[in-house]
Write a structure and sequence with these properties.
CATH class of the largest domain: Alpha Beta
Strand order of the largest sheet: 4-3-5-6-7-9-10
Number of helices: 12
Radius of gyration: 24 Å
Number of strands: 22
CATH superfamily of the largest domain: SGNH hydrolase
Strand content: 15-25%
Structural class: alpha+beta
Low-confidence stretches: 1-44
CATH topology of the largest domain: Rossmann fold
CATH architecture of the largest domain: 3-Layer(aba) Sandwich
Largest sheet: 7 strands, mixed
Number of domains: 2
Distance between the termini: 29 Å
Helix content: 10-25%
């Protein structure tokens, strides 16, 4: 949401902030500092573990330092990290401080804006990561880790890093908002950047994250730790936005803090963050012994502008404009709008206190389960967060759930179930054909499941939940085309998910459960296979993998 703050104690919304909404996303960019050398790491031989207090340590960038928590706490950052020359923005309500892990001292060494190079002093590994941006003149994070490891008995090091490297998450956000604000353009960022570019950027970051994790292992070994004496956890990034917005009018979205095309919000939520997260998971899996905690789902249902929630209960900030920065720290750098500076908007699109608490709960649960190599954090049916296990190298084991939305991927082709030519928010075209198409994160490739009688589900187009996946003319014969049609409660719009092994499902017509959705040999004019009813045989063309993309509501 757009928040104006004239002091640490008073906040008020105002429409006059609209001109700053676009550039508020610069929050994710900062300048950081170099110090330290590999030799420093070898000089920190620890005292016997029994004489040192236990600790857990956070390394990385703004997604783990606590950036954004200041919006709920009167800018309650640790004072030395909220100065005119240091905006590392560490916060006592950041994830590492709210894990509920007993008997440990939480230590936050992360810094807003850090890159992988800011965690690496080793000159050979730095050839892979680059030098970083500086952490505002602080020592490299691995140097600080070595010092911490000599004074504490470190039980866990948790790392979130990579978004400020080649992936340039802040630049993606800035570009997406620029396509909409202040004057909506003809194309959204999903078209001007494109899904292939996101995949390429994610792959370029992967070796840098691997090198950073290898360097942390090396640092801890030099400090006298064996790999098994502590947990090294890499965790991915939260998803701050959603296409499931409360309102889609121009001024309303600016006021709420999400001034963008809903189709771009869908692309960011359904494609950009998952693609990046998958690459980061792959990086963690390349370093032996590193555990992986996926946080992409921690804010599901509570993202900024989410329809299901309201502003006080959002887990992530939208556009934040902190006018009290003038009094505290002056102006760090102009952003092109008179009276506004980068430090005034840097908390935008970061987690709030509730979001960090959600992450912290999951991290605490993950720490208590060292037998689990991987897990993901998600909103549960009690409206709190909890972890679910992941199998290394395997997709999420998602199951049908009332009130959630999904991408459906065909086992034979690897393509997503797609409403041909659709994807526009609010589309109500009857007869739009269902086809198989490469996944790209569009609204027309995601479907909200609504529970109906007999264990069936209605599959609603996520861009307009008044439109349903429908068997044409209520027919059940093999070859019946599947289409988008206005929801009418008919059995031909109710679908039964039948487990078929290996995480796949058959999706049966409730009017005749022996007929299931399948990609066919019949092609449209562009060569895409139609999705039709077929007699159940268990063939790969009839099997679908569910990927949960979001939560519209928690079911009872």
């Amino acid at each position: 949401m757009i928040r104006f703050r004239t002091s640490a104690a008073r906040r008020a919304r105002t429409g006059s902030s609209r001109s700053a909404a676009l550039l508020a996303t610069g929050v994710l960019v900062a300048t950081l500092g170099l110090a330290g050398a590999p030799a420093a790491l070898a000089d920190n031989a620890p005292a016997p573990a029994a004489t040192r207090p236990a600790a857990i340590v956070a390394l990385g960038d703004s997604a783990i330092s606590g950036e954004g928590a200041g919006t709920d706490t009167g800018d309650g950052y640790f004072p030395e990290t909220d100065t005119p020359t240091n905006y590392c923005h560490r916060h006592p309500k950041s994830e590492i401080f709210v894990t509920d892990i007993p008997g440990v001292t939480p230590i936050d060494l992360a810094c807003s804006g850090a890159q992988t190079g800011d965690l690496v002093s080793d000159p050979e590994l730095a050839k892979i990561t680059g030098s970083g941006s500086g952490d505002f003149g602080e020592p490299k994070q691995d140097v600080k880790l070595a010092d911490t490891a000599s004074k504490y008995d470190v039980k866990m090091v948790v790392v979130t890093i990579g978004a400020n490297d080649d992936f340039d998450f802040s630049g993606i956000m800035m570009h997406c908002l620029a396509q909409y604000f202040p004057i909506p353009k003809d194309q959204g960022c999903r078209d001007t950047i494109g899904s292939d570019e996101i995949r390429k950027r994610a792959q370029r970051v992967q070796p840098k994250v691997v090198a950073a994790l290898q360097n942390i292992r090396q640092t801890m070994r030099r400090a006298g730790y064996t790999d098994s004496s502590y947990q090294l956890v890499y965790q991915s990034y939260f998803n701050p936005i959603t296409p499931d917005i409360r309102r889609n009018d121009y001024l309303g979205k600016i006021t709420d803090g999400c001034p963008a095309f809903p189709e771009d919000l869908a692309w960011g939520h359904n494609w950009v963050v998952p693609t990046f997260s998958d690459a980061l998971r792959g990086a963690a899996e390349q370093v032996p012994g590193v555990r992986y905690l996926d946080q992409r789902r921690v804010a599901f249902g509570h993202e900024v502008c989410a329809e299901w929630t309201t502003s006080p209960y959002e887990y992530s900030n939208g556009d934040v404009i902190n006018l009290s920065e003038w009094a505290r720290n002056g102006c760090d750098s102009q952003i092109g709008i008179p009276g506004l500076c980068m430090n005034m908007v840097r908390q935008s699109y970061h987690l709030r206190v509730a979001g960090y608490r959600g992450e912290g709960v999951c991290l605490g649960q993950f720490f208590a389960r060292p037998d689990q190599a991987e897990a993901y954090c998600t909103l549960n049916q009690q409206n709190t967060t909890s972890i679910q296990p992941l199998t290394p190298g395997k997709p999420f084991g998602d199951v049908p759930e009332d009130g959630s939305w999904y991408q459906l991927t065909n086992a034979a082709t690897g393509n997503a179930l797609d409403l041909s030519g659709g994807g526009t928010y609010g589309d109500s075209t009857n007869g739009r054909a269902a086809i198989g198409y490469p996944a790209a994160g569009g609204l027309n490739q995601s479907f909200v499941l609504e529970a109906k009688s007999g264990g069936s589900y209605e599959l609603d187009f996520s861009g307009n939940r008044g439109m349903c996946l429908d068997a044409n003319a209520a027919a059940t014969a093999p070859g019946t085309r599947i289409q988008q049609w206005g929801c009418n409660g008919g059995a031909n719009q109710h679908w039964v998910f039948k487990p078929a092994g290996n995480g796949n499902y058959e999706i049966a017509d409730s009017a005749d459960p022996t007929k299931v959705l399948a990609t066919s040999a019949d092609l449209d004019a562009k060569g895409n296979p139609y999705v039709e009813l077929a007699t159940e045989t268990g063939a790969p063309a009839q099997l679908w993998q569910l990927t949960k993309l979001g939560i519209v509501y928690v079911h009872s």
